[in-house]
Specification:
Length: 62
C-alpha cells in the first residue's frame, strides 16, 4: 500500500505556528534549513512573512 504524505503544521517541531516544521517533515529535510530560507525570504522584500501568514492560516494541524 502506498503511503500518501500530507502537508500539515507540525505539533512537535514548532517555534511559532509549526509551518516550517511541517514543511520540513513533508520534504524530508531539517527544519532549520526551512527556517533559514524563510528568514532569507523575509529579508528579501518581506514576501516570506506574507507567505508564512498565509500558510499558518491555510495548513491544517497534524
Amino acid at each position: 500500500m502506498i503511503s500518501m504524505k500530507k502537508l500539515c503544521k507540525s505539533r512537535t517541531d514548532r517555534k511559532i505556528a509549526g509551518v516550517c516544521g511541517g514543511i520540513a517533515e513533508y520534504i524530508g529535510i531539517d527544519s532549520t534549513l526551512v527556517r533559514l530560507a524563510l528568514v532569507l525570504f523575509c529579508l528579501a522584500g518581506g514576501s516570506g512573512f506574507i507567505l508564512y501568514l498565509i500558510a499558518a492560516l491555510i495548513m491544517p494541524e497534524e
